[in-house]
Specification:
By secondary structure, the chain is an alpha/beta fold. The protein has five domains: 165 residues; 67 residues; 151 residues, Rossmann fold; 93 residues, Translation factors (Elongation Factor Tu (Ef-tu), domain 3), CATH 2.40.30.10; 134 residues, 3-Layer(aba) Sandwich (Rossmann fold). Helices cover 38% and strands 21% of the residues. Strands 4-3-2-1-5-6-7-8 form an eight-stranded antiparallel sheet, covered by helices on one side. Strands 17-16-20-14-15-19-18 form a seven-stranded antiparallel sheet. Strand 21, helix 14 and strand 22 form a beta-alpha-beta unit. The two termini are 33 Å apart. The model has no long low-confidence stretch (mean pLDDT 92). Bound molecules: flavin mononucleotide. InterPro entries: FAD-bd_FR_type, Flavdoxin-like, Flavodoxin/NO_synth, Flavoprot_Pyr_Nucl_cyt_Rdtase, Flavoprotein-like_sf, FNR_nucleotide-bd, OxRdtase_FAD/NAD-bd, PepSY-ass_TM. It holds the Pfam family NAD_binding_1. It is an enzyme of class 1 (oxidoreductase). Keywords: Flavoprotein, Membrane, Transmembrane, Transmembrane helix.
């Protein structure tokens, strides 16, 4: 399969370094807990922002005859070395406000030392340090290429954090966690590389040193330490360390080190004798240590730990995705010029190719010569009679990566003779442009003068059930006997939710064998009218979809009972309080518009149900007109109450009924023609048309709209985007 350069880089870098990254991540996660454990010790006695150096030096000098050094560590614990009145030397943690000794500094943990060595150098000294630094750099490149892949997938910076449809566990979480961990991982890797380079002395050495003019050092006027301006201006939070003078000779001074500078202070007068700025490399080094290790901050340590745990997940999910894609390889038994059937595939993540391979195998098994290829490899096919295009859609209705050049190739490649073709679109109803690329391919193939054997067939969410339906339609139309084995493709439904039957009417009481069913999800679920309920009557891959009407926070379905209907039979057998397991499929393309000047709803039969829900939701009273096709008054009785309620509260502006058995074969498309002026006015206004019901009715509606446009001398193509459908 063709893959983009970014995906190729992301994958190659990840595969080549995953062992090292795995080791560095596991050790990194353990090390992230070191600062957390340190911080939990009880040695933080004061807010160091509020304690001045002058104050602390004074209390220490008052408390101990000799003070050697004071230090503030990353946890903001104050460490000191002093000699007591009894002549004992004491070093460890002290209270900076009272100079009281709190406890000795514990020996560094052997375990953490071991893990640190493994993390830094894998116990391989310089070679190990180099390898770890190099892998840090590779992980940086992996993060950048990953970020570019997310940008490509989301189509731009603005949508970087936009919602992602959860179609596949590994892919979904790889992207979601990747986005959130990007910044911490970039920080970890950049600082890791910096710290490694530092160990190899890549950065210039600090050659700055203090320069004291000993000739002019004075011992007068004497000031108390607390009054030294140089000490008063320094808060302990800025201090790294202060060395005390070892004697009361005037040439001995205080050496104060802050993060960004160091200075020497006359022990009698408090005058600054010399001051040097810390080199930029030292500041960077300090910052890198803090950012890389999380030292001094529990929150940052936890962020680092979570980001590093995510790296482990990326290794796992990345491998799962790669393995799935590799399963989808193309191998041909017949050449492109010897085959009568050509299957062309457009696939970004390989799942469509799995379906195409299964179809190819079956066609070959039934004695046909088949050539399978990617859409971007479209070429001349000497003996082709029929082309099957199976393609997914990506981005916002765009081609998948291995098909993005197809439309151009199609217009520049001429075949010796025309062929017939069928297009199968693989997509997801969760995207507004459902299977759009498949429709684009279909239109272009027709434009080239090829014969369309079947209209575009769309498959939502890799449904094997739908694919089976298409295979059966196609084999009838093509006069070929095949059946695709389910074993390689039937994916058992996942993440089914429990629903309880709230009410159900009896099909036998209705002249059309139609019944209504109300369901309540066991747990809270997000759904709206127009979404689909997928049920699995046999508990296997076989799926049946029903359009939902949401009324009073309950799922309403209207179902026609078919004699051997798998789904309708199963639902009809349910009784009040029974449970069933199903899932909701978001059908973004068929939601009631949030904003519109006018909405025209067109339904026949049970297709009215989602509209009942949408009318219930139309609290803004958007002018809405319903053209509803049913058999007779009795059929209408099933929905009469809801429709009357909508008419009286203004949610429905006007109802047009087409009762085919009572008004002499009148269908909704006839009513549209009757109201041609109103329909054209609605199109011109940019109003939305929504159709739900049989495909035959939908085709009739489209024909009607085309005729009305023709009557008004405009091209229907420019209004096509106003029509939304959910027909079966
Ligand atoms: C980022 C992204 C964008 C998608 N955009 C669309 C879309 O615009 N229309 C659509 O019908 N399906 C869309 N899909 C769904 C895919 O077309 C669908 O999952 C398909 O089965 C994937 O097949 P493949 O694995 O062969 O590429 C999108 C999927 C992803 C991950």
């Amino acid at each position: 399969m063709t893959i983009s350069i970014w995906r190729y880089s992301h994958l190659t870098l990840a595969i080549s370094s995953f062992v090292f990254i795995l080791l560095a991540s596991v050790t990194g996660i353990i090390l992230a807990f070191e600062p957390i454990l340190e911080q939990s010790q009880p040695y933080k006695m004061a807010d160091l922002e509020e304690v001045s150096l002058g104050e602390t030096v004074t209390v220490f000098k008052d408390a101990y005859p000799e003070v050697i050094e004071l230090e503030v560590d990353a946890n903001e614990f104050v460490l000191a070395s002093v000699i007591t009145e009894e002549g004992e030397s004491l070093s460890g943690y002290f209270n900076p406000k009272t100079a009281v000794f709190l406890g000795e500094k514990p020996e560094p943990s052997k375990f953490f030392q071991f893990v640190t060595n493994l993390h830094r150098s894998l116990f391989l000294k310089s070679t190990g340090r180099f390898l770890v630094g190099f892998c840090s750099f590779i992980l940086f490149l992996i993060s950048i290429s990953g970020a570019v892949l997310v940008l490509q997938r989301q189509r731009g910076f603005k949508k970087f954090f936009a919602k992602i449809v959860n179609e596949n566990f590994s892919q979904y979480w790889h992207v979601v966690l990747g986005r959130w961990s990007l910044i911490p991982i970039i920080i970890i890797t950049v600082t890791g590389v910096y710290l490694s380079l530092e160990k190899f002395n890549v950065f210039p050495e600090d050659k700055t040193s203090h320069n004291v003019d000993y000739e002019s050092i004075a011992a007068m006027p004497i000031l108390a330490e607390n009054d030294f301006p140089a000490f008063q201006g320094v808060k302990l939070s800025e201090l790294s360390s202060v060395e005390f003078p070892f004697s009361d000779v005037v040439e001995d001074y205080y050496t104060v080190k802050l993060e960004d500078r160091a200075f020497l202070v006359n022990q009698f007068t408090g005058e600054i004798l010399s001051e040097v700025q810390s080199p930029f490399t030292a500041i960077l080094s300090n910052l890198s240590i803090q950012l890389h290790t999380g030292k001094g901050s529990i929150v940052w340590s936890l962020i680092l730990a979570v980001a590093t745990i995510n790296i482990l997940f990326f290794i796992y999910s990345g491998f799962v995705m790669t393995f799935k894609r590799r399963q989808a390889r193309i191998k041909n038994k017949f050449t492109r010029n010897s085959s009568t059937y050509v299957i062309l595939v457009g696939s970004e993540n390989g799942s469509t190719l799995v379906f195409a391979n299964a179809l190819k195998e079956q066609l070959i098994a039934s004695g046909h010569s088949v050539f399978l290829s990617e859409l971007n490899k479209y070429a001349t096919y000497k003996n082709v009679e029929h082309v099957i295009v199976m393609t997914s859609t990506y981005g916002e209705g765009e081609a998948p990566v291995n098909a993005n050049n197809f439309l151009k190739l199609l217009s520049t490649t001429s075949q010796q003779k025309n062929y017939s073709f069928s297009v199968v679109g693989f997509g997801s109803l969760a995207y507004p442009e459902f299977c759009k690329f498949a429709f684009d391919v279909d239109a272009s193939l027709q434009q080239q003068g090829n014969h369309q054997l079947l209209p575009v067939f769309t498959i939502n969410d890799k449904s094997f059930s739908s694919f089976e339906q298409w295979v059966s339609l196609w084999s009838n139309a093509a006069g070929v006997t095949i059946a695709v084995p389910s074993s390689s493709l039937d994916v058992k439904p996942k993440q089914l939710k429990e629903f309880k039957v709230v009410s159900i009417t009896a099909a036998k009481d209705n002249p059309d064998d139609t019944f209504k069913l109300a369901l309540k999800p066991h747990k809270r679920l997000q759904y709206t009218s127009g979404d689909l309920l997928a049920i699995y009557p046999k508990g296997d891959y076989q799926e049946r979809l029903y359009s939902i009407g949401k009324l009073q926070d309950t799922i309403h379905l209207s179902v026609k009972l078919h004699e051997h209907g798998l789904g309708s039979g199963f639902l009809n057998a349910l009784r009040k309080d029974d449970s069933l397991y199903a899932r909701i499929i978001e059908n973004k393309n068929f939601h009631f518009p949030k904003k519109s000047d006018r909405v025209v709803m067109i339904s026949n039969g049970t297709g009215i149900l989602p509209f009942l829900g949408m009318l219930d939701q139309n609290t803004k009273n958007i002018p809405t007109y319903l053209y509803c096709g049913l058999r007779n008054q009795q059929s209408f009785a099933l929905y009469e109450n809801e429709l009357n309620a909508s008419l009286s509260n203004g949610h429905l502006t006007k109802l047009h009924l087409a009762l085919s058995q009572e008004q002499g074969k009148v269908y909704v498309q006839d009513l549209l023609m009757r109201d041609a002026d109103f329909i054209f006015e609605t199109l011109s206004l940019g109003g939305i048309f929504m159709a739900c019901g049989s495909l035959k009715m939908y085709q009739g509606v489209l024909e009607g709209l085309k005729t009305i446009c023709k009557m008004n001398k405009v091209d229907f193509e420019s209004f096509k985007h106003l029509v939304r459908s959910d027909c079966y």
